[in-house]
Amino acid sequence: MSLILDSSVALAWLFSDEATPAILALFDQVIVRGAMVPSLWQIEIANSLTMAARKGRITLDERRELLIDLATLPILTDSETGARAWNASIKLADCHNLTLYDAVYLELALRRGLPLATLDMDLRTAANAEGVSLLGV
């Protein structure tokens, strides 16, 4: 695995009007070397695409196709996210004033010793404070 993939980066890749050269290069890396995500990642992605469909940004068929595209990528889901939520992740959330949703990405990056790909500025600040390498933007 090459990195921890936050939903903000995945969504920027899926929505071509949000993709930057850095995001496109990052996904080239994901295609070749894979990525890891916490167990809530699929729910975050599905929810964001559902909201985009409801707002008319994409169609339901486009949502289905985007999810199929993501499912073909070598992205592994961490099986320990839930078990760490009430201890390590919540401590990180408290320490850095993060949502628990964001803290699980930071906890996973710390535990796996992998860089974190995120566009979330609060999460980037916390990752810097914890010495986690950052990708994205």
Describe the structure.
This protein has 137 residues and is mostly helical. The protein has a single domain (4-135), classed as Rossmann fold. The chain is 63% helix and 9% strand. It has a 3-stranded parallel sheet with strand order 1-4-5. Strands 2-3 form a two-stranded parallel sheet. Strand 4, helix 7 and strand 5 form a beta-alpha-beta unit. The longest helix is centred in the middle third of the chain and has 16 residues, at 81-96. The two termini are 20 Å apart. The mean pLDDT is 94.
**Major beta-sheet overview:** 3 strands, parallel
Secondary-structure element series: EHHEHHEHHEHE
Question: What is the number of helical segments per DSSP (H or I, 4+ residues)?
Answer: 7
According to CATH, what is the class? Answer: Alpha Beta
Structural class: mainly alpha
Overall strand count: 5
Beta content comes to: 5-15%
Count of individual domains: 1
Overall mean pLDDT: 94
The helix content, as a percent range, equals: 55-70%
The low-confidence runs, each spanning 5 or more residues with pLDDT under 50, are none
Summarize the structure.
With about 140 residues, the chain is mainly α. It has 7 helices and 5 strands, in the order E-H-H-E-H-H-E-H-H-E-H-E.
